Amino acid sequence: MELPKSYIRQMENLLPDEYDRYFSSLQDPSYTAIRVNTLKISVEEFCRRSPFALKPVPWTADGFYVDPDARPAKHPYYAAGLYYIQEPSAMLPAQLLPVKKGDHVLDTCAAPGGKSTELACKLRGTGLLAANDISTSRCQSLLKNLESFGTRDAIICSEDTSQLKKRFPKQFDAILVDAPCSGQGMFRKEHHLIDSYRQKGPAYYAPIQKQILDDAADMLQPGGHLVYSTCTFAPEENEEVIRHVLKTHPDLKLLPIPMTEGFVGGIDMPEAVRLYPHRIQGEGHFAALLQNAGQPKSHQQTVKSGPIDAAAQEFLRRVDLPDRYFQKGDKILWMADRLPEQKGWRVLRSGLLASTIKRGRFEPAQALALALKPEQFDQTVSFSLDDERVLRYLRGETVMADTKQNGWTLVCVENFPLGFAKAESGRLKNKLEKSRRWQ
Ligand SMILES: C[S@@+](CC[C@H](N)C(=O)[O-])C[C@H]1O[C@@H](n2cnc3c(N)ncnc32)[C@H](O)[C@@H]1O
Questions:
Q1: How far is the CA of 152 from the centre of ligand 1 (A)?
Q2: What pTM, to 2 d.p., does this model score?
Q3: Can you tell me which residues form the catalytic site (predicted)?
């Protein structure tokens, strides 16, 4: 790996006594880690059931290192949304953001959703999560990951933060800005980033980061908290961006971040933290926590529901969820408690997709299956982990199973839903979403 000279010089300046250790750590293998989806399973229960040996990530209660040979993406528990595979230092920012039940939370740069899935866990199915990313294509992975986690009260949107702030001035209790950056902390894991660094380094990203952070600060409620993070080490993309927003938004103040072994403070900014790959087991990150002055206002609750397709209605009577369904074109959504007006901005999803109606045919949605507990549907089949029907179901095959009645059935592994099937005389016709089927 041939590293850009400007970057080498910068790291030598930043780490005058440690740069040898830093550069030699770039030859080490990177770490594989998973973060437990506490919306579906407690950390204790996951540890009891875990198919992998787990070693805790020190700065978060729900993150664990796993052996990369364990192939965590190829386990039925992953298909059931029980965990997210995440670079360990990337587990820090969402963990630092104070989130209370009922809060309105914004993730400004959310795709593919590593931190949004953690914020959804913190909200515990209350309040509102607005997960935004300017890239509509990256928003598809964001949507899929939030669906896997069984997230219900989320809006997934694709706007530049400069547009978003016009709609949501001083709206959010907590905001995460995980900014686009030159990615110095990802060079070991993703070598192709070294080439893009030569085209777009810190000087390219710093003005973008300042703009996004200014926009985010405009959307923060009085008394609200904001975390700014990057996976790069250049001070102009980190401390300088924070100094900039403290000038443009004098109501903001920096709060100290608790130190974990291996963390170091920011450059002339002891409240912020820097994670370096030669000091911790992870690729590296920068994070700063800010708070707005003033007293927060409470949010108004608006429960929306409306008339829906009759066939869908009949099916949804079998689902034990409060009646908050609403039809939008060919989609039936289970609406979150509190939704801002949605006209005039790019919303990819608002609430939980419960079902679709295509050419008069009704289909329950994969997102609904992944958001339910087995007891919330009236016909469930659960296979044990070692039952070969689990893998066959995940491959999209028809499997045999006894059911009380024919029709829609929720298929689970160890009581964790994987998707729907249609039962017919002891056969389960596979209805697992095609993009989730294993090859
Ligand atoms: C570091 S990545 C986010 C990773 C994500 N937080 C996660 O944990 O999975 C930065 C993201 O910022 C998005 N982005 C870049 N400029 C933006 C802007 N002006 N407004 C919103 N998102 C932006 C990029 O598309 C990219 O997905």
A1: 22
A2: 0.96
A3: 231 (nucleophile)
* 113 known member of a binding site: yes
Does pLDDT of 420 surpass 90?
A: yes
Q: From the CB of 235, is ligand 1 less than 6 Å away?
A: no
| Domain annotation covers residue 66 | no
Tell which atom from ligand 1 comes closest to the C-alpha of 135.
Answer: 25
Domain count, the chain: 3
Q: Rounded to the nearest whole angstrom, what is the distance from the C-alpha of residue 134 to the centroid of ligand 1?
A: 7
Picking from 328, 286, 287, 282, the residue whose alpha carbon sits closest to that of residue 305 is 328
- Taking the CB of residue 279, how many other CB atoms lie within 10 A of it? 18
Residue 107 sits in the same domain as residue 224:
yes
ipTM of the complex: 0.99
Q: With a 6 A CB cut-off, is 114 part of the ligand 1 pocket?
A: yes
**Would the annotation count 109 as a binding residue?**
yes
Provide the 3-class DSSP secondary structure of residue 317.
coil
Domain membership of residue 225 (yes or no) is yes
Measured CA distances, 303 to 254, 300, 362, 392, 393 (Å): 36, 10, 25, 40, 36
**Residue 9 domain-assigned (yes or no):** no
Residues tagged active-site:
231
User: Could you list the residue range(s) of the whole structural domain that residue 312 is in?
Assistant: 301-336+354-371
CATH number at residue 419: 2.30.130.60
The tens digit of pLDDT for each residue in 320-350 reads 998 889 898 999 999 766 566 667 789 999 9
Q: How far is the CA of 408 from the centre of ligand 1 (A)?
A: 38
